[in-house]
Amino acid sequence: MAKGKSRQARRETLVGAARQAVLEYGTDAKLVHVAHAAGVTSGAVLYHFPDVKELLLEANRAGLERFYDERVAALATFDDPVEQLVVTVRNGLPVDSHDGSVRLLCELGGAAGRQPVYAALLTSLYDRQVAMYESMLKVGAARGVFRLASNALTIARNLVALEDAYGYRIIAGHPTIDRDIAVSLILDYARTATDNPLVINSEGDDEQ
Amino acid sequence: MAKGKSRQARRETLVGAARQAVLEYGTDAKLVHVAHAAGVTSGAVLYHFPDVKELLLEANRAGLERFYDERVAALATFDDPVEQLVVTVRNGLPVDSHDGSVRLLCELGGAAGRQPVYAALLTSLYDRQVAMYESMLKVGAARGVFRLASNALTIARNLVALEDAYGYRIIAGHPTIDRDIAVSLILDYARTATDNPLVINSEGDDEQ
DNA sequence: AAGAAATTTGAACATCCCTTCAAACTATGG
DNA sequence: CCATAGTTTGAAGGGATGTTCAAATTTCTT
């Protein structure tokens, strides 16, 4: 299947297959798994990516970027800092324990202790997410919507940290902490940190 | 080396070696690595643990328990809730990016998405740490030292979550977030959550 | 000290996995 | 339709790893 693709498209297909394989078998997924996910044999994969590790790295890097890009894109659809904050918190959390994006983050978090490349990628992602929240907080403060209890950087760091941690809990299938609970836990902090009730009044979207 | 040990002691030695191997090579460390860390050959390891996976599991379980036990032990040496809180937060964080205990937690966090056993172990650890903080907070509130901004469970969950997340950041070698920064970030939250400055005034122990 | 039991070794074996490569296949231009 | 370049296959090679096991070694018992 998938015969007449261009070189670039073929590589992207394989990167996608690799991402899938990592989700299923961990950061050191096997070449066979990637090949199977792509519907080809090992040799075909090697033809495009002579080094398997390079393919895995590319797949994981792409996965992280996609996660971040989607967050930014979702954020951009709102103007109200309150809406932005609430929606972004929710978006940063996995839907359930099978959520692919966050499971990838967790996988890489484990590998970061051994593989500096993944440590660097995750650190970069964290910093960018912090900057994202920091900007949101500062805009809200400038507009008088937020009255920040600490400096924006501190709050932003803590918000991303909470997201990360509850992501792990949800992926691990915590019996009582699902996405909604995690959202309310994080917003509990965000409320006191911003001195804002963080309620979206324009619609009937009630956070449990 | 290590000849005349009892069966039980021998197993513990091997479990320790396995723990070391996991830190170096990840959750799927190889039998050879364990054997080398223990100073024996593969066969000797298999004699005591016919299944390698079982040994790895036992090693990781033991590592988690030790982490928790040490926290509780350190906690027990203080009576003042403020001291308890500050010291416990610090103790939950890795000393640096090479900290063994926390690196193990990170490793397992990555594997939890695929292996339910590790998910269960980490969930249990999280809940016990939450209970630990919850108790601390309630005692402090009862004594009038803390005035909790939310219910104790919420604050406790967030405190452990922050610890976990900053543990990952430190293990990943974040350039600006070390243990001291992480402590102050977490205490920034804890201060508003407990309405207490969280300063230890009884001694001249200045955190670096 | 001698025999029995427990433990460890080291090698053999089977399996898995990455890599290479010649041959087969496909697409595309002439 | 042919020729050429690009792509994929499938098999073979080689290294690493888990497992088994008889022999060697050590420890325990008497």
Can you characterise this structure?
2 copies of one chain form a homodimer. The first copy, chain A, has 208 residues and is mainly α. Chain A has 2 domains: 1-50, Orthogonal Bundle (Arc Repressor Mutant, subunit A); 59-194, Orthogonal Bundle (Tetracycline Repressor, domain 2), CATH 1.10.357. The first copy, chain A, is built from 9 helices and no strands. In chain A, helix 6 packs across helix 7. The longest helix of chain A is centred in the middle third of the chain and has 27 residues, at 116-142. The radius of gyration of chain A is 19 Å and the shape is elongated. The termini of chain A are far apart. Chain A binds a DNA duplex (30 and 30 nucleotides) through residues 3-4, 7, 10, 30-32, 40-44, 46-48, 50, 52.
Q: What's a quick, concise take on this entry?
A:
Chain A has 208 residues and is mainly α. Chain A contains 9 helices and no strands.
Present the secondary structure layout.
Two copies of one chain form a homodimer.
Chain A: H1 7-25, H2 31-38, H3 42-48, H4 52-76, H5 81-91, H6 100-112, H7 116-142, H8 152-171, H9 179-194
The first copy, chain A, binds a DNA duplex (30 and 30 nucleotides) through residues 3-4, 7, 10, 30-32, 40-44, 46-48, 50, 52.
Low-confidence stretches of chain A: 204-208
The fourth-level CATH homologous superfamily of the largest domain in chain A is Tetracycline Repressor, domain 2
Q: In what range is the share of β-strand residues of chain A?
A: under 5%
Overall shape of chain A: it is elongated
**Tally of individual domains of chain A:** 2
Count of beta strands of chain A: 0
Main sheet specs of chain A = none
Structural class of the helix and strand makeup of chain A? mainly alpha
Helical run tally of chain A = 9
CATH uppermost class of the largest domain in chain A:
Mainly Alpha
CATH topology of the largest domain in chain A: Tetracycline Repressor, domain 2
In terms of quaternary structure, the protein is homodimer
What proportion of the residues of chain A is helical, as a percent range? over 70%
Give the CATH architecture of the largest domain in chain A.
Answer: Orthogonal Bundle
- Kindly report the greatest chain-chain contact and the residue count on each side: A-B, 48 and 48 residues
Radius of gyration of chain A equals: 19 Å
